[in-house]
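Cont'd.
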Amino acid sequence: MILLKTVNLRKQFGDTRACDGLDFVVHKGEFLSLVGSNGAGKTTLVNLISAHLQPDSGQILLEDRDITYTSVAERIKAGIARSFQIVNLFDGLSVFDNVALSIFSREGKTVKMATLAEHDYDVRREALEVLDEFDLGSKAEVLAGGLAQGERKLLDVAVAYALRPRLLFLDEPTSGVSTRDKAQIMDTVSSVVRGGGVTAVVIEHDMDVVFRYSDRIVMMHEGAFLADGTPDEIRANKDVASILLGAPLAS
Amino acid sequence: MNADLKASRSRSVLKLAAAAALMLLVLIVIPAFVEVYQMQLLIYGLIAAIAALGFNLLLGYTGLLSFGHSAYFGIGAYTVAFVVQYLGPHSMEFYILIGIPAVAIMSALFGYICVRHTQIFFGILTLAISQVVYSLALKLYWETGGSDGLRVPRPTLLLGWLSFSGPRGFQQFITSYYYYVLAVFVVCVVLMWVIVHSPFGKTLQAIRDNEIRARFLGIRIRRFRWIAFLVSGTFTGLAGILWVPLNGLTTPDVLYWTFSGEIVFTALLGGFRNFTGPIVGGMVFTYLKTYAVASTEYWQLLLGVVLVTLVLVLPTGIVGAISKLGQRLARGKS
């Protein structure tokens, strides 16, 4: 069942076509990886779907509802959340507060100014549950700015996940961390996301990670889709191999 | 995990409550040991602390540096002066009742314009608006008294229950007014404490730390900045309302940009990245300025040197420096 689709989505920066008429489809419940070399248009596509950028033309449909020109807040309410390539946290707040804030926002409680945040026991319980799921429970009181890079990456995902989205975009969740941390992060993220029944689209460069965790892989090249299939189909695709090795395309 | 978190938070809240109770006790008993003049200075200090507390909701918690908070302090003071001139009752409660909505409305109006921008553009807008208000106070002299300002007589306190006349009237007023302002100060501190620790306060801090991420949590940034501006201006305006009966006169000086600078100085002095910083800053600045003015005609130079030293040596202010020292000592012990 289709959760999200884009129809002929276009975005151009000067002469560069970052998204060149993309028809992108995400199925409910899948763990999809978006791959491609730098400048392929992956992040632009995610930016368009999450309302970080406005498209030049085309449509974005979430379960047949046109959300092309809705605001960020409306898209989050509709169930689209995202993390960022460069970790985006509230460094002056504790790890606990980072996650709690997502829940307050989701519940429409951020305007409350006459009660202490920590006295909302429902939010507190849920925030601690989320942190435990992401193996960050022991760091709840630490300032987010004081976490190690791997933990920051996990918290970045946890903050987006706490919004309880239907569709979660993760922009390079393992960039800048060691190989050992990569596996740990992806194990945690994939188990939480799959366990929570959330549809995930992950931008990733590490093909070992991509092949290991994805249900489906979509490859982008110069603003267009080059390949779309299961990990085995993508492994067998010569064009993909050419792009990954930096060689010219076979076709 | 939940239990550990709860215990650790309870411990820190208890410590803080004990320190606050001790400070309050000192402030309650202090008038028994000091002269009227010192009590007057303490009142000015408490008022400066309320103004800085409000200002810091914007700077410390929302990340917006206002160079125009003199406007809200002055609007509070002038509203009281207009109440005296046109409405009559010389009651402090009446001043507050009329003054707070007036300041809140003006803060909401000016805030709506200013929060459309951030950083230097926000600062310039706040400065420009405060200068417009200053010019109006100076030029509309038939209403405002121009540079001579407007007089405000000693009001009654507690709905007329306490009034002050006769030869010892001034002394009685200062003693009573000290406790009056102290009570308002305590209410303001508690209110601000709740606000900055509420979901709203946490949201402001999130916007300060990372506007883009806050937006991607579905937070409507501008609306939150506007409400923060409104609350901040109202607190600073309340300080102006409390200040004018003590001073007996309001002039356009309290609307001038240098007075906004003093409010910024106060927050920097105490430390704007912690809750108690502006309170300590307000008290210390009042004494610093008073004694600097009394000891040298180059008092502005002296304050300038203090400011430069502060920024270079103690960027986290007095409270920030003490807190860091405490942490270092605690680490040394363990």
